[in-house]
Amino acid sequence: MDKALKTILGGISLTKDNIKVDSRRVKAGDIFFAIKGTVYDGHDYVKEVLEKGASRVLCERACPDLAKEARKKVIIVKDSREALADAARHLFNDPAKNLSVYGVTGTNGKTTTVFLIDSILNHASRSSGLVSTVFTKSSGDELKRSSMTTPDAISLNRLLREMVTCGKKAAVIEISSHALSQKRVWSIALDSAVFTNITPEHLDYHKDMEAYLRDKSKIFRNLKSGGVAALNVDDPMVIGLAHSMDFSHLVTFGMESSADVRAKDVELSAGGTSFELSMKGLGSARVDSPLIGMHNVYNMLAASAALLKSGLGLAEIKEGLEKAPLVKGRLEAVGEDAPFGVFVDYAHTPNALENVLKCLKPLAKGRLICVFGCGGDRDKTKRPLMGKIAAQISDSVIITSDNPRTENSMDILKDIEKGVLNKNNYSIIDKRQDAIQKALREAESGDIVIIAGKGHEDYQIIGREVIHFDDKEVASQVLKSLGY
Q1: CA neighbor of 91 nearest in space, from 164, 153, 22, 136
Q2: Which of 26, 218, 278, 439 could, after both became Cys, cross-link 180 (CB 3.0–4.6 A)?
Q3: Which alpha helices (DSSP H) does 166-257 contain, by range?
């Protein structure tokens, strides 16, 4: 596509400033890629950007009502998103070819798995960068806050080029289903692609589980020749891909005895997790990790599976797992001086919430108190499911606002309430700060309070306004007022 791209652009050079996908930002001389989005279609603005002086427009269909000279600047391509991704790759001189690249997708566990792979690589002296929901790391060891799970093709290739420039040897990328559907990672070749699990999520976008799985599985199109597909053998839908897709190198992970990478003799506690890591061809070793919960055992298995064919030894993988940093907003402890436990977690899907609650329930000497909500303008089907799960596992539930966006927050809370079967162990408090305060004021010695749904996020979206709100910050302030 590089040669074809140069040809169709007619000698016009690509720069980081002249590629545009937002018609409002087009200036004279820019190259506009008409992208059909979920709300707006760039094809509707072709005439407008040409009148602004765009030098070229790449789109998927002819645009009516254009003057003869304007039509000469319009180039029809098969897929505007692919063309944009190819342009980004060309602009930054295909940075992925100079890196070992590991991609991680799945409904839950992506961010933690990315950080685990990054930790293993760096402790094995294979300097690595990362792109995740929480942070990016492209220059040195500095972590920068992310704005989304997987950035656009231009931003992603820019980050990869920064990694190459500063001497990194590898990159680990968290890849969302939206990014795969929208081809943000198009043409970025992966040495290993990990599929952690799949449970209902984003069905407002994907419409059904079949389409969701289909979009998730597109990650394997990015595998290099000989690249590794790492699949969760304990997830029927994920391992089912092994029968419907042709993988040159398949690595399975899970608790099943048939798994290439498996965990045995798992011991869970409030202080961390210990298990026997068995890796086909490498042997086995005891891993002692500060990460809590069975879901994190799976994350560690996923990271290990991604690197089974990388040439690393078992001791290097074990060290990287044990020394991996705790990820912000993932079962992050707050207020260690309190006589009860307080955790903040990003769990915002039914499966993630169930995993976190089941992890904490046996660790609570007293009650398990759960504070959570669901986002507005998003998949409504998960709301009653999460209400049911929270009420079944927790001793006390406080249903509250998350990011209501343009929906009425009380309507969202009522949707959640529909799933609550135990009518005696929950309350509804719309204002999230008040809900957190109530939970912490009522907590007693030995209890555990889990504040779920937002994790690392430091904002709330109400209407179209973004306001500062950090669960950990609010919880810390309340605990301080209580003398802890």
Answers
A1: 153
A2: 218
A3: 177-181, 203-206, 209-216, 236-239, 241-244
Q: Which residue intervals of the chain bear CATH 3.40.1190.10?
A: 94-322
Q: Which fold has domain 94-322?
A: UDP-N-acetylmuramoyl-L-alanine:D-glutamate ligase (3.40.1190)
How do residues 435-449 score in pLDDT, each as one tens digit?
Answer: 999 999 999 999 999
pLDDT single digits (tens) 127-180? 999 999 889 999 989 999 887 778 899 999 999 999 999 999 999 999 999 999
Alpha-carbon gap, residue 333 to 341, rounded angstroms: 7
C-alpha neighbours within 13 Å on the C-beta side of residue 93: 6
CA distances for 91 relative to 26, 78, 158, 172, angstroms: 18, 20, 9, 21
Residues of the chain with CATH 3.90.190.20: 332-481
Compute CA 187 distance to the chain's CA centroid, rounded to the nearest angstrom.
20
Nearest alpha carbon to residue 126 among 81, 72, 171:
171
Classify residue 457 as exposed, middle or buried by CB count within 10 Å of its CB (0-12, 13-18, 19+).
Answer: buried
**Beta-strand relationship, 261-269 and 249-254:** parallel
Nearest alpha carbon to residue 251 among 225, 280, 277, 276: 280
What is the CATH number assigned to the segment(s) 332-481? 3.90.190.20
How would you classify residue 29: left for phi > 0, otherwise alpha for psi between -120 and 50, otherwise beta? left
* Tokens read off for 305: 């599976």
Q: Domain 2-89 sits in which CATH superfamily?
A: MurE/MurF, N-terminal domain (3.40.1390.10)
The C-alpha atoms of residue 431 and residue 371 are separated, in whole angstroms, by 11
Report the alpha-carbon distance of residue 362 to residue 273 in Å, rounded. 14
Closest CA to 230 of 256, 196, 257, 262: 196
Which pTM does this prediction carry? 0.88
